[in-house]
Amino acid sequence: MKRLPLFVCALLPAVALSSTIRAHTLAERFAVSDRVALVQVLSRTTEAQGNERNLKTFTRLLIGEDYKGSGPKEVTLVQLGGRLGNVEARVPGDADFAVGETALVFLHCPKSPDRCYLVALGEGKVPLLGADALVHDLFTGEYRREPLGRLISELKKASAATETRR
Question: How far is the CA of 74 from the CAs of 14, 71, 165, in angstroms?
Fold first, then answer.
């Protein structure tokens, strides 16, 4: 069996971290999303996929308004993990949803327009407080309130500027 030199082994964690941990701005998330929409959570169900530890949660979302993309008025958001009986599995950093909640979501719908995934896990959801978005700044770790209309306008401008540069 070949062995890697010790200094190469010591560098592997740094290489892995530098390639996987990168803060994506809201504008970047907007640009790569198939659909960005204001939604209300209708229901959540968790199912075992094969065995009791392989869980998926399916959240039905009612689309209130599309800001990017379009599609059906109801979509199913698919997330790995969830809670089923006494078994709970979570993906660190993923978003949680509550029935009745309203949020802005960044969606990727690769195979079907009514079956989607969040872009950037938990950062693909921006909760709303009244007419304001509760925006998480990944660079500082702080939250700020911003009027939803102004946020959407800024995201569309940033996305248009990115498209123009391509």
Answer: 42, 8, 34
DSSP lists the bridge partners of residue 117 as 108
Name which residue leads in pLDDT, 49 or 106: 106
Output DSSP code: residue 130: T
Using CA atoms, how far apart are residues 71 and 117, in angstroms rounded to an integer? Answer: 14
* Residue 75, both tokens: 């979509």
In tens, the pLDDT along 1-60 reads 444 444 444 444 444 433 445 667 888 899 999 999 999 999 999 999 887 778 999 999
112 vs 38: CA distance, rounded Å:
19
Strand-strand pairing, 74-80 and 115-118? parallel
Pair 24, 123: CB distance under 8 Å:
yes
